[in-house]
Design a protein that fits this description.
The protein has 159 residues and is α+β, with helices and mostly antiparallel strands. The chain has 4 helices and 4 strands; from the N terminus they run ααβαβαββ. The chain has a domain of 103 residues. It is globular and about 40 Å long. The protein binds zinc ion (ZN).
């Protein structure tokens, strides 16, 4: 793979902060995966929180979108998202921890190369140990702090 080709991946890529855009456009040159979720409105996050609680389905988040904001949430002031969800290609299954671990840490490593600290939903406390996790969100990667990267006028990230 050299770039994202699916419609969904390309859409999610366009929703990402400059830092996450940079990391993903670098990573896709080496490993094949899809971007499945990017920005969310507050209403979308509230609906996700309801899933498995007051609405059908399994619990997919512990962030209610009101008192506690997801890094996926965007606002008019900050319209690009600071989190994304991915799946390896070919996709195996949601709980395939070894494969998600390999992908996540490859992507995290690219972030470090560019001064971008990333946190993975399979290792929230970033200690490279997974047995201390209370909640696994293997597709999820987020910026730990909002990075200083910005898009320039041509839509490219200064590297
Ligand atoms: Zn996520």
């Amino acid at each position: 793979m050299a770039e994202f080709t699916s419609k969904r991946s390309v859409r999610v890529l366009s929703e990402l902060s400059a830092a996450l855009w940079l990391v993903n456009t670098k990573a896709i040159k080496h490993i094949d995966y899809s971007l499945i979720d990017g920005s969310r409105t507050t209403n979308q996050q509230v609906a996700r929180y309801a899933q498995g609680r007051t609405a059908p389905g399994r619990i997919v988040t512990f962030v209610d979108g009101i008192n506690d904001l997801s890094r996926h949430q965007v606002t008019p002031e900050d319209p690009l998202t600071h989190a994304f969800d991915f799946i390896p290609a070919p996709f195996t299954y949601w709980e395939d921890q070894p494969v998600f671990t390999a992908y996540a840490h490859f992507i995290i490593g690219i972030g470090y190369e560019h001064g971008i600290e990333l946190r993975w939903g399979g290792d929230w406390d970033q200690d490279f140990r997974w047995r201390d996790q209370k909640f696994n969100d293997y597709p999820h990667i987020e910026e730990v702090i909002q990075s200083k990267f910005t898009l320039n006028d041509s839509g490219k990230v200064p590297v």
